[in-house]
Amino acid sequence: MAIKHLTYAAIPLIAASMSSQAATVDQLNRQVQKLNQRIAAQDQRFRVNGFATFGMSISDESMAYNDVNDEVSFNRFSKAGVQMTFNMDSQNSVVMQLVSRGNNNWETNAEWAYFKHEFGNGLSGKIGRIRLPAYQLSEFLDVGYATPYAQVPAETYDSLDPFSNMEGVDLSYSMDVGDNTANFQAVYGRAKDDEFDLKDILGLSAVFQADTWSARLGYATASVNVVSATLQAAISAYDGETEGIDGAFTSLGFTYDPGDLYFTTEFTQLEADGEIVDADALYATVGYRFGRLMPTLTYAMAESQDDDERSYDAVFANNAAVAAGFGNLATLQAAATGGNATAAGVIQGVEGLKAASDRNTTRIGLGLRYDMSPGTALKVQYDIIEVDDASGLFDDTAWATNAASGAGASNPDGTNVLTISIDTVF
User: How far apart are CA 313 and CA 424, in angstroms?
Assistant: First the structure.
């Protein structure tokens, strides 16, 4: 009987304990829900994305073409990047993209660092370190996974490679055109490397995006100053200008991608006053998807349009001192052979400028892309490159040294380049 009374007495205590536990679990659930809401809100405010390319490249020539020679390189096209976006609210955000490149000893640089404001109705603005919208692939130039190439057609994309980014402002507008989209972009700013300082860059671009195809037109102008002492000395052989040089760049691109078939092409034209190169470039790529596999065939070419402005005849025509001292190429070469330092300097400067600028190059590229998994692709690319009467993208220092010493016949007239890469986004 005592035990029975004790059991009855414990019932209220057990019920109270169960009620307390239920309250505790309910509180814990609410706390978890609040924590999840905070995490979700934080995810919306701060976002991190990344991309990377790891691979190898090798050619069959000891003289490097586009920095690739007959010694296998694991650094030339390898890179890794992280892009961080912090959304302060629905209209304002800060974006930073950090990239480490193998061909730059894996040093990390801020490729992008800008403030962005959404004005609404498709209009937005940026200020800071932004991408120069020069090319069809400019926006995702570093994200190898977004392109079919193990290396993009260098004959086109080498022209403004040091100036893929700039410090300035960007104004973009997007609008619907029926079921399609039109995007317009205007930028103003400045970009500089060890050779050139591009001031007052003004760039305009327009992209029309349909369901299966897109077309793009871009145009940019700048005032160019030559800052490299070596390049200044080379241009001085012609009595040429090194400051306030007018430059312009035009790009016209088209892509058709209905699903299995893939086709893209782009034409570019670089123009600058004086001895700086004027060059036309073109590439076209066609591919076809077989499940995860996509073989591609690429044709690319580049041709400088003003080689006569960097000829020895131009030196004698433009530089009165050289013309008076040496008269013609034969006397200039004879003086250099005889140990005349001035004559040797003129020849070295002219050959260096010609090697860096003159080009008549064609490329046939055979590629294969295999999508290993979502976000990761293996690519193999074999490029057959021919160069006619110009250095193309060969090492211009080695090329010019051979030409200036009379060993120009030993300069290669082409090369074959193998590139293998793994591209990923995460």
Answer: 51
Q: Sign of the C-alpha dihedral, residues 252, 153, 295, 181?
A: negative
Domain ranges for the chain = 53-425
Distance CA 308, CA 357 (A): 11
CATH architecture of the domain with residue range 53-425: Beta Barrel (2.40)
**pLDDT tens for the 426 residues of the chain, in order:** 444 444 444 545 444 454 555 456 666 666 666 666 665 555 578 999 999 999 999 999 999 999 999 999 999 999 999 999 999 999 999 999 999 999 999 999 999 999 999 999 999 999 999 999 999 999 988 999 999 999 999 999 998 888 899 999 999 999 999 999 999 999 999 999 999 999 999 999 999 999 999 999 999 999 999 999 989 989 999 999 999 999 999 999 999 999 999 999 999 999 999 999 999 999 999 999 999 999 999 999 999 999 999 999 999 999 999 999 999 999 999 999 899 999 999 998 999 999 989 999 999 999 999 999 999 999 999 999 999 978 989 999 999 999 888 777 789 999 999 999 999 999
Q: What is each CA distance from 98 to 38, 79, 106, 138, 158, in whole angstroms?
A: 27, 11, 11, 16, 21
Please give the Cα distance from 327 to 63 (Å, whole number). 34
Q: Which two tokens stand for residue 314?
A: 């131009």
What CA–CA distance (Å, rounded) separates 239 from 349?
Answer: 12
Cα separation, 152 vs 66, whole angstroms: 11
Query: Which pair of tokens denotes residue 59?
Result: 């050619």
